[in-house]
Amino acid sequence: AQKITQTQPGMFVQEKEAVTLDCTYDTSDPSYGLFWYKQPSSGEMIFLIYQGSYDQQNATEGRYSLNFQKARKSANLVISASQLGDSAMYFCAMSVYEKLTFGTGTRLTIIP
Amino acid sequence: EAGVVQSPRYKIIEKKQPVAFWCNPISGHNTLYWYRQNLGQGPELLIRYENEEAVDDSQLPKDRFSAERLKGVDSTLKIQPAELGDSAVYLCASSSVRTGIYNEQFFGPGTRLTVL
After folding, report:
1. Does the distance separating the beta carbons of A45 and B43 come in below 8 Å?
2. Cβ A43–B31 below 8 Å, yes or no?
């Protein structure tokens, strides 16, 4: 069975600072994908970034980067230069055989 | 390109009443998913369709939940009868192997169900 653990229920960060959201995962399957989604108050899940289990380099998408440490089974999301619009719930998820398993999420609040 | 469309956005019903949710996936996406998201939790998969075939419904409570995807496009999720514990957000997502990313799923805005 697949499991995603997000240990930070909530975080408060000053605007323009960088923030790291933690995610650890557990699977016995060697082939998997790791995702981060943002869920604003409107409810829609917005795809941010993806990392494949065989990818050698950490994924980056604009201000988002994924710190992938395979041996430690961690896939932390790093947001550089945070903005007020980054305030939302953030979910880490893992895909194995096309089944997506989500963590419980981290509520990020950016302080002006 | 239009995103995943869901309706209604909000629904309030009395317990024991039936309710149905509708989803229109992104054009050309052959895989469709229904998720339930309880308050303070991440989404949990209820059912996955490949075209019109339900290929994973292991988490669907079949005594009261049903789903269909006629012609492999739109899908309907039904609850009959609804219970208090069914209050949640029901999310629909779709994906296609042509997106270029391993199983990237695109989500709709969800239907927030409140059972009184």
Report:
1. yes
2. no
Contacts of B25 (CB under 8 A, 6+ apart): B4, B32, B73, B74, B75, B92, B94
The pair of three-digit structure tokens given for residue B21, joined into one six-digit string: 């949710």
Any B CB within 8 A of A50 CB: yes
Rg (CA), chain B: 14
Cβ-based contacts of A42 with chain B (< 8 Å)? 109
Q: Are the Cβ atoms of A100 and B105 closer than 8 angstroms?
A: yes
Residues B44, A45: C-beta atoms closer than 8 Å? no
What is the distance between the alpha carbons of residues A5 and A60, in angstroms, rounded to a whole number?
A: 22
Output the average pLDDT for chain B: 91
Q: What is the pLDDT of residues B11-54, one digit of tens each?
A: 999 999 999 999 999 998 999 999 999 998 999 999 999 999 99
Does any CB of chain B come closer than 8 Å to the CB of residue A100? yes
CA atoms of B73 and A70, how far apart (whole Å): 38
CA dihedral for B49, B112, A7, A22, sign (positive or negative): positive
Question: Cα B83–B43–B21 angle (5° rounding)?
Answer: 50
Cα separation, B22 vs A84, in Å, equals: 33
| Tokens 């055989």, located at residue | A97
* Over residues A17-29, mean pLDDT: 96
Is B42 close to A4, i.e. CB distance below 8 A? yes
CA distance A102 to A100: 7
Chain A residue numbers with beta carbons less than 8 Å from the beta carbon of B44 are 102
